[in-house]
Amino acid sequence: MDLGIAGKSALVCASTAGLGAATARALAAEGVKVVFSGRRLELAEQQASAYPEGVAIEADISTVEGAMDLLEKAREAVGDIDILVLNGPGPRPGTATTVTGEDLHAAFESLMVVQHALVDVCLPHMRQQGWGRILSIASSGVIAPITNLALSSVGRMALGGYLKALANEISGDGVTVNMLLPGRIATDRMKSLDANTAKSTGKSIEEISAAGVKSIPAGRYGDPDEFGAVGAFLCSEQASYVTGSAIRCDGGAHGTL
Asked: Which domain holds residue 208?
């Protein structure tokens, strides 16, 4: 299927590895001018070098200042942004009883304030041209809080509320806003979370992974490229009537429809 987005410009935040990289690759394969970005420039360059229109930019988007610096460089490289993929590292694991006020401020800054700043700058161009895609790589914690990822759940739920309200306001302008929620996808982040759970429970990583697989109807962890393909479709011309939605890519793991 031709997704109808060849020649568009995309900024994919935190796309040197994992779900961000998979989504960026899927877009680049469709002929999109994609900015691969992250703290490790060499990894961004490795990803971007596989595509004629790929661009690599070193960036730290843990602060608004860092995000604005990335956006400025991205616009210099590929022009105004047509497709904005919001993504970033999650806060430290931990339960609600271990959360501090400082933790909450940091999580809200990285998962809500930074994302809002990026949207705020990119949105006028999208609305003016009557076409745009905003996609947030989020978490199933948007649907229901994840016990050991309290900070992530709080920050991403706040972002979800903002993006849903935004989608309702701008859907008539040709701009869609969606969230893509991963389940257990085989990324370095997932390996780190499994290792953290193993350490806290005294079990082996293999036991934790096996228990995780057992909880997934599909019977396996997902492949990042499977996730990236869904992300690219949500940014496509064909998905122009999908907006204000939180779509799961989790092998059926979540208990809701």
From this structure: 186-221
